[in-house]
């Protein structure tokens, strides 16, 4: 009997497993507070949905250019001028099937099998798992309170000393699951260090726009070794539309086009028409960010009352990464019981940190304020 | 200066390059006859688009389960009963981001780096290029008039003798670019041979439903080493919606779920709502197939008048694979000139067969009948 390949034996994305279980419970009629998956509770803005409805009437919705509709590539390039004052060439913008598609394309284009790529631990689990499936070795670089829960040059160099040459560095800011942000100086240092050492610098900017104190700085335009990844999923509230983008150095564009033609054909058509309207909706979207901040504050007030008080500084994104070691020594069991018994879904830290994650839980607060309050109530009764 | 990885140096999907060029010419106002890309000219059926419009109003369009909405998985499983009389378990059905997403998942799940996979040459170029990008070695098995333009057990065994053990065999029926179909007996022989030799059998059934003489037979339900790949793109006319599916043996389901969670998160939401209505639209869709047949006949009558008379028997799909060696010894230049000078887009055979493709051109006939006639008129004036 044939068996699955060894290389496909990657970890599950635990948040997605929990989402499936929570979906099944909700389908049975149970009220579940959804703090597990990183997605906004609200749909895409009205103008975006209207653009989709119009395209649905008027367009045949065939394949687009593999790298995306020229008009959308231009809108995305224009966004860099408007939001960061950085000129971006539409020819270097690649529309992708979510940031997920962007990661697959960027990792294949940049890294040979066996290459090592540094990334923060805790961090988004799919980085590690996609890299592994593609034969690339993720090198987890531990971060914590001592590094302000972000990567810095010292930590990267220490990892390289320990694990051998890194062919690339992957930096997320704001980061998942911690919500922390790279300062402009630290980001510049990391990029300069990568340039000096001949490493690709992959900048995951998917939570840009969702920041509470200072805006995040983009790595766009910082040289020929920088790949920027972003998406319409988070700030623009378009998770299920599966649309993201890359900004690539010129040397990678044709390579990524060839990969995209073969691996994806083209990104979803209707989503591309809809996304043309997304950049005009910042007023509405910023109101949503203000609501996330309120949600954050509800959790930051409520969780300590449950004995959960060590929480990474949540400067952006919509996650709290909380030390639950006062309540459990196994966050997987803890989250399972919490879902079963308290009807609150959250994600165990092991998803983000295979080493120390047993002590942590990630709470996603992109839902309704009432749900945050109800979750705290349920948890108080349960703990 | 950093360079793209060697493994990302795959061939372009030439049809997509030509589509981009044809799109650009059309955007300048030129009338181009589009016989290059394999996609229906008509939009998805009315009921499908209506379902999308309703979901757009009512649903927030977030992530779905990584393997797809349970309701859609059930509809797809039901399709196997209705269309082939084969029972399929919804738990073995995986909804994917187009058949493209299905290939990436299936290839990763089945094959280690360095494994060899047999496939017909000529064949769909993305097979070869995805396999290469994932470190798997495609083994082209030449087919032609002598094998009825389809694979058979002898050809597979001969390839294995020459190239070493094959870990899998990929069979498309109806096939792209030839339009040929596996007879039930030949398909059964190939599957049995793979079972005997311990090879995965990957059955690309994306052109099922588009057949002109006898319907194609599905490999679904033929054992624990069979992976079926299909899509809503072709028969259901939903190319730009990027939605396909796999039917997997039980041993691969959890592996593919873990891969899908990490590499794709979930298939596009809106497309999944729309696709729920697709299986009810066969009457309308079969009328479209009847129109393809008329298109085929227009080309089969017209091309010989241009000196193109050796054409693979087009029993299904919507392609003619034609020997153009009477007119050119370089189908790439031929297709470029044809687009520039005659404003007719078609795809050079090198896309499908790196060895003998220089002598062939693929004409896609899923457009309007008037376009087929106009293309023949233009080509007559041009040749």
What's the helix and strand layout?
The structure is a homodimer of 383-residue chains.
Chain A: H1 14-27, E1 33-34, H2 46-58, H3 70-84, E2 93-96, H4 98-110, E3 116-121, H5 125-133, E4 137-142, H6 153-163, E5 168-172, H7 184-197, E6 200-204, E7 226-231, E8 244-247, H8 250-263, H9 269-275, H10 282-305, E9 319-323, H11 331-342, E10 344-345, E11 347-348, E12 360-364, H12 369-382
Parallel strand pairs in A: 1-10, 3-4, 3-5, 5-6, 6-7
Antiparallel strand pairs in A: 2-8, 7-8, 9-12, 11-12
Write up what this structure looks like.
- The structure is a homodimer of 383-residue chains.
- In chain A, the strands form three sheets. Chain A has a seven-stranded mixed beta sheet with strand order 2-8-7-6-5-3-4, with helices on both faces. In chain A, strands 9-12-11 form a three-stranded antiparallel beta sheet.
- Chain A is globular and about 55 Å long.
- The mean pLDDT of chain A is 96.
- The first copy, chain A, is built from twelve helices and twelve strands.
- In chain A, helix 5 links the parallel strand 3 and strand 4.
- The termini of chain A are far apart.
- Chain A has 383 residues and is of the alpha/beta class.
- The longest helix of chain A is centred in the C-terminal third of the chain and has 24 residues, at 282-305.
- At the A-B interface, helix 1, helix 2, helix 4, helix 5 and helix 8 of A face helix 1, helix 2, helix 4, helix 5 and helix 8 of B.
